[in-house]
Write a structure and sequence with these properties.
With 335 residues, the chain is α+β, with helices and mostly antiparallel strands. The chain folds into two domains: 194 residues, 2-Layer Sandwich (Fructose-1,6-Bisphosphatase, Chain A, domain 1), CATH 3.30.540.10; 125 residues, D-Maltodextrin-Binding Protein, domain 2. Helices cover 28% and strands 24% of the residues. The strands form four sheets. The chain has an eight-stranded mixed sheet, sandwiched between helices. It has a five-stranded mixed sheet with strand order 12-11-13-17-15, with helices on both faces. A two-stranded antiparallel ribbon has the order 1-2. α1 runs antiparallel to α2 and α2 packs antiparallel against α3. The protein is globular and about 60 Å long. The N and C termini lie far apart (51 Å). The protein binds 6-O-phosphono-alpha-D-fructofuranose (P6P). The site of 6-O-phosphono-alpha-D-fructofuranose (P6P) has 9 residues, from α6. 6-O-phosphono-alpha-D-fructofuranose binds next to α6.
């Protein structure tokens, strides 16, 4: 690869910020800190089968889910990479019930980090691709230290969002509101190098991703939408192919590149849906809209939800524009 094509994530972030004269570099450095944490997590995810860090710690997270050692490790890596930098006023994550304050002996910054340290972790032992998801807001509360109000902002206020997928390679995909860009980790030099510039999701889906085991618990409109997708019709490219890994970042990433729709609707078991607003639905919704797609809870834009709880859940329909629109029409009884 010629040197001129070696675009590192650091250079890309700085070049993106050049057009914002007010940018202090704090934001660029924050994104670079996340990239550093991703490298450390990637190193240990890759050798999970070798180093005895698999299996359960025996503890549970706020979701009541068994926490595997890699979840705790990933959470600790992100916290330790971010807590002292002076760029954040507070954090919140899936593994911890309350907001995560910046330790007293460190100064606070102007940003908030919300993250799911290792989503899809129930797949760790099966060597399925898993991921880290992150969302960044500006601090809005008065005073130096962050508060819950800084975390409970609607997704349309995000300044950046992204994910890291630990798959056949480690890829960091992010947006700062100027397109969606992917960087593949070159472990030989320890750098994320630009590999997917300005990702655009195909407007029409060819893939649908949903857990059809929940069919009998869905509302009628969703049952009819999935039947519609499976009904052959050449003109509209149906039936779509069914692809469901059960790992949100992996399902989302494939659909982002190939064109598809991911659905985790409300059902009788999870009337609010399963996925969390702050650190799953919002960051992926920001990304998909920047890539030309849509993200909805079936009735409203994900990014317009006003969160009231750190771990609030939502139904999630996300992906190719046409497919999300169709799903909404079925759910709203318009088809
Ligand atoms: P189900 C993994 O536990 C997760 O949070 C997401 O990564 C994934 O999309 C979803 O749950 C899978 O849920 O109920 O289909 O197993």
């Amino acid at each position: 690869m010629s040197l001129k094509r070696l675009m590192t994530i650091e250079r890309h972030i700085i070049e993106q910020q050049k057009e914002f004269p007010a940018a202090t570099g704090e934001f660029s450095a924050l994104l670079y800190d996340i990239a550093f944490a991703a490298k450390v997590i990637s190193r240990d995810v890759r050798k999970a089968g070798l180093v005895d860090i698999l299996g359960y710690t025996g503890s549970e997270n706020v979701q009541g889910e068994q926490v595997r050692k890699l979840d705790e490790f990933a959470d600790e890596v992100i916290f330790k990479a971010m807590d002292h930098t002076g760029r954040l006023c507070c954090m919140a994550c899936e593994e911890r019930e309350e907001i995560i304050p910046i330790p007293e002996d460190f100064k606070c910054g102007h940003y908030v980090l919300l993250y799911d340290p290792l989503d899809g972790s129930s797949n760790i032992d099966a060597n399925v691709s898993i991921g880290t998801i992150f969302s960044i807001h500006r601090k809005i509360s008065p005073g130096e230290r962050g508060t819950k109000a800084d975390c409970l902002q609607p997704g349309n206020k995000q300044v950046a969002a992204g994910y890291v997928i630990y798959g056949s390679s480690t890829l960091l995909v992010y947006t700062a509101g100027r397109g969606v860009h992917g960087f593949t980790l070159d472990p030989t030099v320890g750098e994320f190098l630009l590999s997917h510039e300005n990702i655009q999701i195909p407007p029409r889906a060819t893939i649908y991703s949903v857990n059809e085991g929940n069919t009998n618990n869905w509302e009628e409109g969703m049952q009819r939408y999935i039947e519609y997708i499976k009904t052959p019709d050449k003109a509209t490219g149906r039936p779509y192919s069914s692809r469901y890994i059960g790992s949100l970042v992996a399902d989302f990433h494939r659909n982002l590149l190939y064109g598809g729709v991911f659905l985790y609707p409300a059902d009788k078991k999870s009337p609010q849906g399963k996925l969390r607003v702050l650190y799953e639905a919002n960051p992926l919704a920001f990304l998909v809209e920047q890539a030309g797609g849509l993200a909805s809870d079936g009735r409203q834009r994900i990014l317009d939800i006003q969160p009231v709880d750190l771990h609030q859940r939502t139904p999630l329909l996300i992906g190719s524009r046409e497919a999300v629109k169709e799903a909404e029409e079925f759910l709203q009884g318009k088809r």
